[in-house]
Specification:
Chain lengths: ~425, ~425
């Protein structure tokens, strides 16, 4: 059985780098209604130009710009109005020298015209004639047919989860069905003889409800994965190995919350090691909380063994599991986390060589130069630490702590 | 017909404040699998204490702390081991003076014990006897039965969208079904004779595909709402009024993207005004882009008239629509937006009294003291401005622009 003594403690970056290149999910077609947050497999190129025709950007008159040169309040240019463009229709008229055509914002520029004068710079003096009091340059008041997007231009990159404005762009160029990575299926296995399902009404002495599986499922959903619960497995290496073998067959990533005692953790490590090559790449990560973490791969499926207490498990999953869900799901341009700068209200020690994750509560009183970050203290076994925190700060491996009053970057829960 | 002249331009805050208190959605029951991001109607109180029994936080031996006082490497305390606690079981033994019971991390503390000595500070010298080389204080190595949560304690507030760790807390206290606000139904109406559905393969001259509806639906989903598309209505006040009447019957909030020309906008304003009291509270917001915005309410349903071009519509919906979706959906503790500090690469002018929203692209090269924010320029009719931006910055009403090199807060797209 591979004990921890065979593996030296690694940093988070080393652990992620040590995993062989794993799988990336296949593609599926989705419509615009289901595309938010999904990850395009290929860059999207515009099949057509946008807006597709020269459009007016103002209400006014389509003209030949040369007809307005020198126009002023004192010496206006007089143009004959030879018609009007209707929204959504082809312009039925042509603009020739000395003439103007009435335009709505967004209307198609008539042939012959090269600019649109804003209505605010005109006056209708008699029926059929308009007075122009300011000159326009060619192209003024007009968006070119390909000014937004040219034919064949890349409008969206591969690997970046689709954002709301991206859906507008896809609609505009008429791409209403597109190829995105399937949601990575993340198997969630809980171990521990003490665990019972959350639905259990009354607990026998020594039992606790499985909190980790529900919290992990939430994190997985938040980053675009599809959680697949495998329930609770007793601290029995044979039973655990059977469940894990099923999971690596079906899932793109498997997460097992190891039992909290040393014996249970060693059993988990043994079961994971027996899943096959390349096996365990790292046992023990230089994080607090979260040291007893297992990083492994079975075939092309990463397997993550999390500490047995919920706070540590959440911290480790945030640092290692979330990047893996993204990687497996084809996301190469990671959306930003919400963050804020804050001032630390007390000194926080840390050991060099170890990454410390400190839960903090924010006081948004900006009277004293920005929010204050209060470290939320408590054993890592406490869930209330997590739910009362507004976010966390990370003290890097090379730092030896933070001083009271230090300016810190807090990653916010959402 | 209420023209814009009857309404003075308002700031965003004034417009939101001017809306009478509207509806808040009713409640529905959801299970933990569907609870992420949902908004609890009432605070959640713990029906039981957590962890529910005194638990060991280490692998070691349960003892009476007094038996270890003065223990050291040179003068260890010797205790008889009178049994072991198994995970998930009631402790079958009692600890009396001079005795110890073997404990796994997370095991239930046996009666009589008041501390747990870490296994690292013990040595098994002969079967049935353990040598303790460090003293422990009462309570050391133990989490109290109610240390995480006391019975009846509030564990989650009302009005804060549920986060992943919150789901863990709910599971831990056995609350697997809870009352949350229904998702606010947001009616989305597009107007404009030039608009055609995104699925339209070939466009006639002057036509454009409806981009706003898809982009708005994405924004609505992102903040927990349920978009309800009403399709495209031609620029005809009667037809628009009929669709809007249907929408305010069924929806919790209605958004109509007004046609882009002055005439179409006035028709939209007229149709909205005829929906009934309290009616239009503001026509024209001091935002760029986005000035021609309409804020109204029909009964207790807010109605928002957005500018006809996608960029302006998205900006206005972000500033006014998103807070309304949250308000209607019972969200009183708004989750943070992702933000970053950046340095502006060029001067951006702004007029005092008007809020300017400037799209920016970020260069994450941190070689020169943090990311650089490049304003993305282009007409507000261009969708490519939005999709090539990484986020936006807001120049407040009281500012008159930003200097090159200014440190700015960029709200990031996700």
């Amino acid at each position: 059985m591979p004990g921890r003594e065979f593996f030296r403690t690694r940093t988070v970056a080393e652990a992620l780098a040590a995993l062989p290149t794993g799988r990336v999910t296949a593609s599926e077609l989705v419509g615009l209604d289901d595309a938010l947050g999904r990850v395009p497999v290929e860059p999207v190129h515009a099949p057509r130009q946008l807006p597709g025709f020269a459009r007016s950007t103002v209400d006014g008159y389509a003209v030949q710009a040369a007809d307005t040169y020198g126009a002023s309040d004192g010496l206006p240019a007089y143009l004959d109005v030879s018609g009007a463009v209707a929204m959504g229709s082809a312009p039925g008229v042509t603009v020739v020298a000395g003439r103007a055509v009435a335009m709505p914002t967004g209307g198609a520029l008539p042939p012959g015209a090269d600019a649109v004068v804003m209505v605010e710079h005109t006056q209708q003096v008699m029926p059929g004639t308009v007075e122009v009091t300011r000159p326009v340059a060619p192209g003024e008041g007009v968006v070119r047919a390909d000014e937004d997007v040219a034919v064949g231009q890349q409008v969206l990159p591969a690997g970046r989860p689709l954002r709301a404005p991206d859906l507008g762009m896809l609609a505009a160029v008429g791409v209403t069905l597109l190829s995105v990575h399937s949601r990575p299926v993340v198997g969630i296995v809980s171990t521990g003889d003490e665990l019972v399902p959350p639905e259990t009404a009354e607990l026998a002495p020594g039992q606790v409800r499985d909190a980790i599986a529900s919290a992990l499922a939430g994190l997985v959903r938040q980053v675009g994965g599809a959680p697949r619960p495998y329930g609770i497995v007793a601290d029995d290496a044979g039973a655990l190995e059977r469940v894990l073998r099923d999971a690596v067959e079906v899932c793109d990533l498997v997460v097992v919350s190891a039992g909290s005692s040393v014996g249970a953790r060693d059993e988990t490590a043994g079961a994971v090691a027996r899943l096959g090559p390349p096996g365990i790449v790292c046992h023990g990560i230089a994080i607090r909380p979260g040291k007893p973490t297992l990083v492994a791969q079975a075939g092309d499926v990463p397997v993550l063994g999390l500490p047995g207490n919920p706070l540590s498990a959440m911290v480790v999953f945030g640092l290692l599991g979330v990047p893996l869900v993204r990687r497996v799901g084809g996301c190469t341009q990671v959306p930003p986390e919400p963050r804020t700068r804050a001032r630390l209200t007390r000194q926080v020690p840390s050991r060099a060589g170890r990454l410390d994750v400190v839960q903090v509560r924010l006081d948004e009183d900006r009277g004293h130069g920005g929010p204050q970050a209060y470290p939320v203290l408590g054993a890592s076994a406490l869930l209330s630490v997590l739910t009362s925190a507004d976010g966390y700060l990370v003290i890097d491996e090379d730092a030896t702590g933070l001083d009271e009053g230090a300016e810190v970057d807090v990653t916010l829960y959402r």
